Structures are given as C-alpha cells and as structure tokens.
Task: inverse folding
C-alpha cells in the first residue's frame, strides 16, 4: 500500500519537474510544477468529441489503458514491503498487463481510420516489441542472481558485494531509465513537443482523443514514469533501513530521474526514425552483458 | 464402449449418404454429439486416474489390439471433442451457403464423422499396425475435408500438397514402427517401451528422431510446416478451425506419447525440441505478419503456437533430464494447457474469419475495414480471440504462456551454464514471439474490423444469426474461464502431467503452481474490478457534452477510405527490419514519362524455407526425371515391351544370382 501511495504522489509531481528542468536549462520562466496536473484536472471534466468513424473500442481504450497502468503499480514493492499483489513470476504478469494497455491504444488509434494515427500505432507496436526482451533479460539476470522469482523477493534479496555487482547494478539502472524513456515515448526515440505528425509516435496516436480520455492518457504517462522510477529506486532501498530513510531515498531518486529526463530532453535531439530500432535493440545486448556479468559473479562461467 | 462408437459412426455415415440434403447436417451433428458424449465419459473417468482398457483380437495379421485410454489420451480426447462439436455446430451454418453441391456435402459430412472416429482411434489404439491404418484414414479424411471446393485449382493443389506431405510423415512413422517390430515381433505399444529400456542410447535417439519427424510433419514444426499455409486457407472455415485446433495436435500427442514410451536421453531431446520450437515460433509469427490473406495469416500463427507448445515440451524434457521437478512440471503443464488454449482461440478466429468471408467474399485484409459497426458481435469475438492468442491477460493464452515463462525462469537457476544460456535465449524468443503476435493481431483486427470500409462488397453486410454465433460463444466462455480461474484447470491437467513427472512432483510442485495461479487469478479479478470502477468513475465525472465530427485529418478536410492506413503500411517498418530473413517478391512499374500513368506495386511474401527445402529439391528431382521421359512415349507397344522386360528381369535376376553363387562355390572349392 505504501509503495502504491508513494507512486501516486510522485506521479503528481513528475511531469511538472521535467518541464521545470527544461525551462531552467533553456532560460525560460516556465509554468509551476503543478501545471500539468492542473491541465489534467481540467481535461477530466471537459466534454468529448468523437470521430464518426470510431466505434466503442475508441471509447473504452483509454480507460482500459489507464486501468492496466494502475494495476501494474500494485505489483511494485517498496523496500521491505511487498506490493499489494506479489507472487512468483509477477513481473511476467506486469509486462503482459502493460502490453494489454498498449494493444488497446494501438487498435483505438486504428479505429479512427486516420491517415496519420496508424503510423504512430505501427511504430508503437514495433518499438514496444523490440524493448520487451531487455526487460525480461534483466529480470532473468536478477532471478539468477538472487534465486527468486518475484519483484519483492528479487529486490529484497539484492545485495551488492563485489565490483562487478556494482557495475551490473549501474548498467541495470541505466537500462531501466532508457526503457522508461522508450515506454513513455520520450526524447531520443520520440519528441513529445514535435509539431509534425509524420515524426510523432505517441502523440500522433492520440490526435483524436479529447476530454476525460485525453486526461487519463496524459496522467497515465506521468504514472508510468513514477512507476519506472519506483522500480529503479528499489535497487537502492535495502533491507533493514528505517522507513523514513527509504521514503527519502525514494523521493530523491524520483526527483533525480525527472531531472535527468529533463536534461536529456534539453540537450539531445530526436533520432532519425530508422535509427530507432537499432538503438532500442542495443538495449537487449546491454542486458545480455548484464546476464553474462551475473554468470561471472556466480562463478558459473567455466 | 468401442463397439457403440464404431457402430454409431458407420450407421450415420450410411445414413448421411441416403437422406435428403436438409437432414445431412442434423445427422452429422447427432453422430458427433453421440460420439462426443460416449468418448468424453471414458475420458473423464481416465482423467481421474482410472485407465480405460479393452482388448480386441484382430486376427493373425494384427494380433491383439489393445484399446487403452490413459490420462494423456483422455485430455486430448476432451479437447478434441469440444472443437469437433463447435466445428460441426458452426459448419452446418457455414455449409448452408453451398446448397447446390449435394455430392460434395455428402462426402464432406461423412468425412467429418469419420475423422472424429479416427482421431478417437489415434488417442486410444495401442497397436502400431492399427495405429498406422487409423492415421492413414485420418489423413485421407482430412484430404476430403480440405478439397470441399475442389473445382478451384488452388484448393485441389493445396489438398494434394497436404496428402503428399502427410504421407512423407507416415513413411517416417512406419520406419519407426517396423524397426521396433523387427526387433520385438510385437505390434503392441508396450513393446516399444520394453525395447527402449534394453536398447542403447544411440538407437533410442534415432528411433525417437524417426517418430519425431513423422509427428512433427503433422504438427507443423519448422521445417516440416510447408503444407500448412496452403491447406488451412483452402479448406472451409470450420475445417480450418478444426485442422488448426485439433488435427495438428495429433502430432503433439504423438510426440508426447513417444516421450513416454521411449526412455531416451531426455536432456539431449529437450535441447533439440526446445531449439526447434523457438525457431518454429519465431519463424511462424515472422511470416504471419507479412500475410494479407486472413486465413493464411492464421495458418502461420498455428506454426507459431505449435512452437510455443514445443517450448513447453522441450522444457519439460530438460526438467526430467536435470531432475528439476519444478521445470518439468511447468513445461509439460504449460504445453498441455497451451494445446487446449490454442485449439480454442484458433478455432474461434477461423470461425469468425469464415463469417467475414461469407459476408464480404474476400479474405484480403486490404479490402476489408469498418466491419465492427456492421457485425459488432463477431468483431468482439475476434477481438477476444486475438487478445488470447497474443497471450494477454485476462484470457487463457496468458495462463499457459505464464506457466512456460515460470518454467524458463526456473530453468535459469540450473547448475549448467549451457542450459542457463539456452533458457535466456528461449525467454528472448518467447517474448519476441509475444511482441510480434501483438503487432500481427493489432494489424489483423485493426484493419479488418476498424476504420471505414475499403471496398464495395457484393451484398450488404450484417450480423449473422444467433445459431451461427452460438458455437463461438461456447468457445469464448471457455477462453475467459481459463483466464480467470486458471487454478481449476491446472488441477485437471495434473494427472496427465504426472505421467511424465511422477506423482511426487505433482504433490509438491503441482500444489505450488496451483497456489501461484490462485494469486494470478486474484490479480486478474483485481484488474477486472479496477477497470469496472474506472468505467464507473468515467461515467460519473466526464461531462455529458459529447459531440461527433469527422476524424482529425491534420488540416485536410476531404478524407476518403483510401487515405486510411493500410495493413501493408502498418507493417512496413517491421518488413524493412526483417527483410534479410524473409523473402518478399516485389513487382514495381517505374514512372517513366512526364505525364503520370497508372503504376502498380505488387508484393508477394514467400516462405524462404519452402524455397530451400521443398522447391529446390523438387526442381532438381524434376530435372533428373526429365532424362527418363523418353520411356513414357504414349505407345502401347512400348508399354507391353516394358512389361515383358520386367518379367524377364524378375525371372532372370534370381537365376543369374544362383548361377553366380554356384560359380563362386565352385571357385571356393578349387
């Protein structure tokens, strides 16, 4: 429960901090950190416009998408506390739940019969397919390292001992940051601020959404960031600390993640669309390195 | 119980050919229903652990024919009965569109009844000679079922392709059975088991490989899959559903049965099956994505799912080899459950695609679109089945993939580096299969049912009547049930799994997995509840001001259906990535003159493995055979001459051999 509420709280700040960071780096005054949440609140109460081409799929998809995200956050542990739902292999459920949400967003964008939205849908489907192996290899490596098979058990048994294990931990945190960026369609892959539909991924998929649905999708993006932030902070929450230490570490890492994302978005340009698959797939090879590193730690390489 | 089933089948086949056309469907339904009830009764008892056994005497040729249903056979009988039943319920409606072909329909219905019997026979008969006969009969019946529309050249070609490849499989089975018979003198399956205990490892390996190739040809493992993408689209929809759902599962049953009978080196077999299965799964789905014929797309997905089942079997074998009971349980349970799951969602997908075909008279995805508004129920059914086949919760496909994933993650912790590495690569394979399946089915569902209509159909499209939807709802209920209360179904399959892993593994690992699946079920219910609450909130909060307007065209105000994203462009970036592995023939006309003329781009995906393993050898064989064409000159005198030469040789060669023997004998005496 504590992890769920912490994730919800940090999701309220997350987009605001990213925007604030970008403003500071570009020397603008910029809005307050609560502006994104205020926008979302306004959207949730607005009326909607639906395309006459779309069917019921288009209406149910955003809510289902948000529901998968909310359920997925229930799986995330917090240091000594397991998530609300925890069982062996829960990360498989977690990944497939997120895939379910994506499935609905993809078909809902095809539902509009638009000449642009299918483009985003096609890219989203391909990129999320490419990013998935990295997540599974990472979890596989940690399952091998700790001998356990659930988020909670893996994170509570994770100990960093040797130099290699620090390297492995750092690499894993890096891979998770990149996964979070890709899953949220952020900078090196997709530019949320672009104005050309041809170069969009996520934004072009939701061109037709409005009102409550759009609000849910936008808030879902913040929630997803906070969720990945929580997973990354779990690497650093070790057993036996006082709870307020853990909360501080958690908040610090969420803040750091948001600032890093803001910095990346300020200083990097988006990749060319045809370079994206290579970049995403390189994550898989980095995770394979992590796996080999774990084999090395356990002395299994002969 | 065997005699009532046999007599019911024969009687109804005779009746089908005698009665009027309206009654044929009812008689078939009645026969299938009767056989289903009788055989399910046996199967349910066998699944509880009490094997059913009956022994017939088949004369001096066949010897004793034991008919034995164990838990494994029982599980397969139950899942086969269900799909055969929904198949005929839907098929009756499907065939009512072909009223002017009475002989076709008679043959079709009789084959349908007969194939049900032969499949029961395959699951129950324990005598290899009878088994081969039943297997052959099954192949012939499926041939008749496939070539229902035999006046189409494509259909008859696909049928003959199927028949030839089925017989190549049978040759391998025959080799295996004859080898055992030559060494033991018995046709009983128990003899295979006894023989394998005494035979060496190498002999067991070769023997298993022989059976494996035979059964894998039926199941459609790569590279023995090439008949499948032709046969499935050619057959009527309910037959494609049944073929993909249960007939190819006969191959899976055969492989599992042989694993039980032949006590080989499980670790090695497991490695081979696992690697082959990952390749099958990936290759199947990779080709499925670029298909634009709905049924061909689904056919390639059968190969993918056979791959997933194979991964389960391979894992189970590795678990047995490493003495890791958790791995063995998860592998075999996942494989058996996925066999059921695939038979459910795949038959449903084929039934709905049949409905779409009869409504629009096309299977080309690019010509469909917007059907969800005209046939909302069919569209929803297709959506559920698509999500299930992608392995998404809360449907059945997720449960079996979850079991297999659990097995793979269990296996990572093995003490050998080689198996750890193999496991991680299999995980990557399985995840990629899942991701590609999502790409494929968002394309299929999105383009067929969503958006607006892309072409003009011969008659107005509307939702089909309830009697045609009813069997599909039967399937959907099971799909959802397995998804939301998986622990119950895992309990059922623990008896067949115990045949492989032993009772002890069931009591420890089985219980553990049942409790894990209980948590999965809780998570699934939690998700469903949360979703319902969110929909409630949406209804409550969101404003009542709702307007409709055309889709936002980014400034363009005269959109037409042709501007929609197409299936081909949806998979374009994937196609470019996968280009080196695929074989896509592209025909393009270039723009030459200043003034634009109509130009065409035509892409046609082809199977690279088929080109290498089937087409190339056939081409070489043909070239070789060309040299002997002068023999077939159409002149009867020559043919008589060949006969005479043959007789002379038949008499002369033994005489010659005797003479040589005599002379060598003389030489030795000297």
Result:
């Amino acid at each position: 429960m504590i992890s769920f509420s912490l994730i919800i709280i940090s999701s309220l700040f997350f987009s605001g901090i990213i925007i604030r960071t970008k403003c500071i780096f570009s020397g603008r005054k910029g809005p307050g950190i609560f502006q994104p949440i205020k926008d979302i609140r306004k959207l949730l109460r607005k009326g909607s416009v639906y395309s006459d081409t779309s069917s019921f799929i288009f209406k149910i998809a955003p809510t289902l998408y948000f529901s998968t995200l909310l359920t997925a956050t229930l799986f995330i542990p917090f240091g000594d506390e397991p998530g609300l739902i925890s069982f062996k292999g829960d990360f498989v459920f977690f990944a497939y739940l997120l895939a379910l949400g994506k499935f609905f967003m993809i078909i809902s964008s095809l539902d509009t019969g638009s000449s642009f939205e299918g483009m985003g849908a096609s890219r989203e489907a391909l990129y999320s397919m490419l990013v998935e192996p990295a997540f599974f290899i990472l979890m596989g490596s940690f399952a091998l390292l700790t001998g356990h098979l659930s988020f909670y058990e893996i994170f509570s048994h994770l100990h960093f001992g040797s130099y290699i294990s620090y390297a492995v931990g750092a690499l894993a945190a890096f891979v998770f940051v990149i996964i979070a960026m890709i899953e949220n369609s952020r900078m090196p892959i997709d530019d949320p601020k672009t104005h050309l539909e041809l170069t969009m991924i996520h934004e072009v998929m939701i061109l037709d959404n409005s009102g409550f649905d759009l609000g849910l999708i936008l808030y879902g993006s913040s929630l997803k960031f906070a969720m990945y932030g929580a997973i990354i902070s779990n690497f650093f929450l070790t057993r036996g600390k006082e709870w307020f230490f853990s909360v501080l570490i958690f908040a610090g890492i969420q803040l750091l993640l948001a600032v890093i994302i803001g910095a990346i978005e300020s200083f990097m340009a988006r990749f060319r669309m045809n370079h994206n698959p290579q970049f995403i797939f390189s994550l898989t090879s980095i995770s394979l390195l992590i796996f080999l590193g774990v084999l090395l730690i356990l002395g299994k390489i002969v | 119980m065997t005699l009532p089933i046999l007599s019911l089948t024969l009687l109804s086949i005779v009746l089908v050919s005698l009665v009027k056309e309206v009654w044929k469907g009812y008689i078939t339904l009645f026969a299938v229903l009767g056989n289903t009830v009788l055989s399910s009764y046996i199967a349910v008892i066998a699944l509880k652990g009490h094997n059913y056994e009956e022994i017939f005497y088949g004369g001096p040729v066949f010897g004793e024919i034991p008919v034995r249903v164990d838990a494994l056979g029982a599980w397969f009988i139950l899942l086969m009965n269900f799909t055969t039943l929904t198949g005929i319920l839907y098929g009756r409606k499907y065939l009512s569109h072909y009223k002017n072909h009475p002989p076709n329909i008679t043959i079709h219905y009789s084959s349908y009844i007969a194939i049900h019997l032969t499949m029961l026979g395959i699951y129950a008969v324990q005598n290899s000679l009878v088994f081969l006969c039943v297997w052959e009969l099954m192949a012939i019946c499926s041939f008749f079922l496939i070539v229902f529309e035999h006046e189409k050249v494509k259909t008859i070609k696909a049928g003959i392709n199927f028949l030839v490849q089925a017989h190549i499989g049978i040759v391998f089975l025959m080799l295996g059975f004859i080898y055992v018979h030559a060494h033991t003198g018995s046709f009983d399956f128990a003899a295979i088991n006894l023989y394998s205990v005494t035979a060496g490892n190498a002999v067991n390996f070769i023997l298993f490989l022989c059976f494996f190739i035979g059964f894998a040809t039926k199941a459609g493992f790569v590279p023995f899959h090439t008949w499948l993408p032709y046969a499935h689209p050619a057959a009527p929809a309910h037959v494609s559903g049944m073929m993909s759902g249960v007939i190819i599962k006969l191959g899976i049953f055969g492989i599992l049965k042989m694993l039980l009978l032949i006590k080989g080196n499980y670790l090695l077999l497991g490695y081979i099956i696992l690697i082959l299965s990952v390749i099958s799964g990936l290759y199947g789905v990779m080709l499925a994505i670029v298909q634009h014929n709905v049924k061909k797309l689904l056919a390639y997905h059968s190969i993918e799912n056979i791959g997933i089942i194979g991964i389960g079997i391979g894992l189970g074998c590795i678990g047995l080899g490493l003495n890791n009971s958790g791995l063995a349980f998860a592998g075999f349970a996942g494989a058996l459950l996925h066999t059921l799951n695939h038979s459910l969602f795949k038959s449903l997908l084929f039934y709905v695609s049949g409905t779409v075909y009869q409504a629009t008279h096309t299977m080309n995805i690019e010509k469909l679109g917007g059907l969800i508004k005209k046939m909302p129920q069919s569209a929803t059914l297709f959506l559920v089945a698509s999500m299930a086949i992608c392995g998404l919760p809360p449907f059945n496909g997720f449960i079996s993939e979850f079991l297999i994933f659990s097995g793979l993650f269990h296996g990572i912790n093995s003490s050998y580096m080689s198996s750890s590495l193999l496991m991680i690569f299999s995980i990557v394979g399985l995840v990629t299969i899942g991701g590609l399946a999502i790409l494929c089915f968002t394309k299929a569902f999105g383009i067929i049912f969503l958006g607006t209509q892309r072409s003009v159909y011969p008659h107005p499209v509307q939702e089909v009547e309830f009697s045609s939807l009813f069997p599909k709802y039967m399937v959907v209920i099971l799909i959802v049930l397995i998804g939301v209360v998986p622990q119950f179904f895992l309990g059922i399959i623990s008896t067949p799994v115990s045949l492989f892993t032993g009772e002890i593994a069931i009591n420890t690992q089985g219980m553990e997995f049942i409790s894990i699946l209980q948590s999965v079920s809780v998570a699934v219910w939690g998700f469903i509840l949360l979703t319902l609450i969110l929909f409630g909130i949406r209804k409550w909060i969101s404003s009542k001001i709702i307007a409709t307007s055309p889709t936002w065209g980014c400034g363009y105000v005269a959109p037409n259906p042709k501007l929609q994203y197409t299936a081909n462009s949806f998979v374009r970036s994937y196609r470019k990535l996968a280009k080196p592995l695929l074989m896509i023939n592209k025909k393009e006309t270039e723009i030459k003159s200043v003034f634009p003329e109509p130009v065409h781009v035509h892409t046609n995906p082809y199977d690279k493995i088929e080109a290498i393993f089937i087409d190339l050898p056939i081409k070489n064989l043909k070239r070789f055979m060309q040299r002997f064409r002068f023999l077939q000159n159409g002149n009867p005198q020559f043919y008589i001459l060949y006969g005479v030469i043959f007789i002379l040789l038949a008499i002369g060669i033994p005489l010659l051999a005797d003479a040589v023997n005599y002379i060598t004998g003389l030489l030795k005496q000297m």
Summary: Residues 209 and 269 of chain B are 9 Å apart (CA to CA).
